[in-house]
Batch of 2 targets.
Target 1
Amino acid sequence: MNARFKGTAAGHLNRLLFLLLPLFFLAAPAALRAAEGRVPPEITVTLTPDTLFVGDHLHCTIQVRHPKSEVVSLEGVERFMVEPFALISRKRTFSEESLGIGVESFQYELAVFGSGRLALPPFSVVFHNSKGELSGRVPYTPTASVFVQALTDSTMHELRPISPPVKPSIPLLLILPLVLAVLGAAGVVLLLVFFLKRTVMSAEKVDSGQVAQRKLRKLNSRLSAGMPPHECYEELSNIMRTFLENHYRIRALEAVTQEIERDLKKLGVAGFESIMNLLKQADLVKFADSRPDIDESRHSLQKAEEVIRSSRQPEG
Amino acid sequence: MQPAVELEELGRQITEASGFLEKGERALSQRIIGQHEVIRRVFIALLANGHILLEGVPGLAKTLIISTFAAAMNLKFQRIQFTPDMLPADLVGTMIYNPKEMEFYPRKGPVFANVILADEINRSPAKVQSALLEAMQECQVTIGSETFPLQRPFMVLATQNPIEHEGTYMLPEAQVDRFMMKVMVDYPTYDEELEIMLRSATTASEEPLKAVLQADDIFRARALIDRIYVDPRVQRYIVDLVVASRKPAQYGMVELEALIEYGASPRASIFLLLAAKAHAFMQHRPYITPEDVKAIAYDVLRHRIRPGYEAEADNIRPDDIIRQILQNVQVP
């Protein structure tokens, strides 16, 4: 029974050794490498989201898988704070993945300014042993990138070369005299128009009496041609008022006879009574249904001409 | 040159019939110093069967003018002091129950008179002011279900104070429009002030004024006023003035367009013509001229033109707008 028992136990031990032996061969080199600090670190960089707008936040996670006995830090991450990136916040976590292996996770929240496809700047992963001595430095250039869209619809992604100025087909020196000549001619024409208008206006101003006399003569001939005498007075009133307005610079067309009387009195106009008589006669015809005969009308027209002529004399 | 023959005859009749006005003016001048234009406007309103609103600061003899005017006429006069607690029934009257006969009978209010002085009309609420509407427009008053005609001539002369607004009620537009004229009562001149002071600074009470005007005089004058000749040119001039207050741009006054919220109503045209006729009557003239229209244009239009916000911001008053209109609308 003892022999049998011994035989069974030896069998179990052999079987156990047979099972542990491959594990030993598998774990021993890794343990040795870890002990010597030669385990190659695994570095992964993830960026989320992969597409964003200018100013949006980008989450960057750098994971370093390393022997637990070592302390990991990153070098060169200050570049994350340089344009087009701006560091908003950072966080560091550690988790044990398996026996002797840990995973260090560095999380950065970045704001992105710029446009187009952007990659993170290179950085280095630095390892220190438990004594604080530098045990390794692994430079790393991230391959992950992010696409940043501009807020405005701009298709311009690069500086375009400045094209040389277009030369005019006709040399400027030739055009300039031509332009100056045209401007000069236009100026001369404008001056001529201005002086012509001024001359006409001054002629009209000077001739307000003459104009009135001409109109009165026309009215007289119309009266002879059979115009009803009472109709003639309305025109006579208009002619006189226009004359007074232009000659004495008073508001006569929009003024009633009383107002004209007041204004002429103020100005001390010669022949004031005759003017007022004419206007009052015209008012009687216009507003009091008065019906003058042709002789009265002729007399009034004659009187009006005299008044105008006498008022023009001091000017001449 | 003379007016048309029939107008000459009318002119003679007008001169004869208008004698009472001089008597009236003389009687009024015994009590009132200055304010000749206001007195003339009151007579115009009386002749044209219109009502008048006098506006001015306290102490300018508004009430005295009206009470003296009423005393000078042999007509029934009632003074109604408008107060905030007044009711329409206090003005027009109400139905009273008679227990003996077991029925209601109307008790007529003070509005049943020939000349009404509505003193400080803006001190009463709108419902009281509006109670005058029917009386002013139709010369009748309805109490309960019964309508009573008012005695003729019937004239409302109202006063209001423009500076005190606390405890006052602005007259509704419909009410204001029924006044033929709104006359601004201004301060007296230096000499007038001196005379007022010397004449009024006495402890003796004044003798009652003798009535010099009769209702018949007024009716006769009104009949003649209706016959006063109005040429179509003047008719069109009146309409031009009123339309220009509504559509100033049409008359070349583009800058006025923004200053007027709304222009004068058709009542303005009617009252302009009536008042111009009365004005011509007072000048003993059997026809009206644009001078008559211009003379009363401010008083007839000022309460019918409402200036807009821009005008108020620039302190432009209705009188400034009317001046612009009168200066720009061509006289026939």
Target 2
Amino acid sequence: MSNIGNYEERLKNFDWSLSEKELDYKAGNVINIGWYCTDRICQMGKGSKMALLWEGQGGVEKKFTYNDIRLASNTIGTFLRNLGVKNEDRVCLFMDKVPELYLGVLGILKIGAIAQPLFSAFGEESLLVRMENAESTAIITQRKHIAKVRKIVDKMPFLKHIIVVDYDGKHPLREREVAFSLEEATPVENFEFFPTKAESPSLLHYTSGTTGQPKGVKHVHYSLISQYLTAKWILDIQENDIYWCTADPGWVTGTSYGIIGPFSLGVTQCVLDSGFGAEAWYKFVEKNKVTVWYSAPTAIRSLMKAGEEIIKKFNLSSLRHLASVGEPLNAEAVVWSEKVFGKQFHDNYWQTETGSIMISNYPGMKIKPGSMGRPFPGITGTILNPDTFEPINAEGKIGLIAFKPGWPAMMRTYWNNEETYKNKFKNGWYLPGDRATIDRDGYFWFIGRDDDIINTGGHLVSPFEVESALLEHEAVAESAVVSKPDEVNMEVVKAFVTLKPGFTADKDMELTIMNFIRKKLSSLAMPQEIEFVDSLPKTRSGKIMRRILHAKEWGEEIGDISSLEND
Amino acid sequence: MNRDEIKDIVLEYVIGEYLEDENDEITYDTPLISGGIVDSFSMVSLKRFLENKYNISIPDEKASPEAFDNVNKITDLVIEFVGKS
């Protein structure tokens, strides 16, 4: 029997108070996610239950019970407090998927500070703009990433502490740097967590914007109410499950459903801190007897590419429920997963700003392969006419996905950017920026973004950010960045570039520019292809017409080009 | 160009381009993709380097994470295609 039971029944008289009641929360009370994920579970008598099974490079393992993660988060929280970190200070986490990342988020939340996880593959420019926007007080990082921080530290006078979790003493630490070893620190038993309330800020996740710099999405401790119940009903996590969320906590899935959801439910989750490899992943499932697996379409398509023979080498019979998020899961992948695992992947839809899953295929509900499913109980979702912002009450018509604001995990604002936040609402609806259709059964079908943002492997990349970085390369005169189709990542970044006089457009130049962007921004933002052109299509007012280049890449109609500048 | 020369060139390139911690040491057998040193997106630039350097063309179906997982395997791949383009 699934946790959600009958979806249709759950829609009737749904109220978020159901989740509040399960969590013993009453309006106005203290609510601290860090406490809920650790101390509360221990108080429920599950302190000796395994919370985190971690495996790193070379098969190194670490195991943490709920009492261990309670003590570890207390210890990290105390260390930060002793440094002078206060509630609502922003503490950046810039690490691989090491235990300190998971436990650090909980420790930061326990002292009422704001956790700001950033993807460890970010280059120094990506790191800098996000930390500048947040004015982060501290950053917790690893030895392997310290070089990036050192390159930009002089530009961050607000940054007081650079905490290195794996300092080996071989090279001297520099100004503002301090070592912290979770294994060597004395566990802190008695700890007073900060009495955060529902609207106290909890997490700051950065997401790419169409124009301008990345936006800091501010979440609050009350988001727990959504994250707990959606993890329970959609991911169907049950008491004896072994749960594996493959997402990195540098992104929202990795915190909402890689930390908050499973830990608040008091279940055992496992983490594999290594790069992708089909054999390594199947081995991990077999070894840990994973029952609930939450992954991403890009990973699933990579597994498909690796073939079916490899699957026969492993016993994957422990798998009970599969779910996917990040970008639309193609129908073929759903059909494939049923064939090879005997289970279908349940696709769902949400984004950094929504904080929790909004639309999903539910356990026990008929899956229509290729569909995102139906809105979660308590979520009012529809499709709006893009001109009038009125709901389209016709099946199959393309419109803008929209939600009635008010669910617990909804973002509260963009950090230092209230104006952009307000622009996300039209006619009383929140617009995530995607287009879809709804069929006669109420299932949503994803069409695409409503802007130029590129969704590559489930990660959003701003063309503007890449174009700006390209212009910093000495050879680049102008650039335009669009997506191009990709079999595994759905779409990838492609750049059209004109060079300054004196530079040669050749393969070596392409590689040089690719690496320049990779180091400056991230590997996700690195153009997978650069096409050198003599000129870019522009309007008469000089604005680059990205849509023409986009249409060319996707084999679409170019549309109205009356404003195109004539050479 | 012999195998040892290719191995050394690839190793040097990986160290220079992808290793974040200058104090880390890698060998010809260090896992690159599964070890998190080179991610799947960065693999494209590594592939491009090999193609430019050795004037070869590596088909996408051959450029799997497994085939790029260490310097020895990458060297095998390069040798397979040298002279074919």
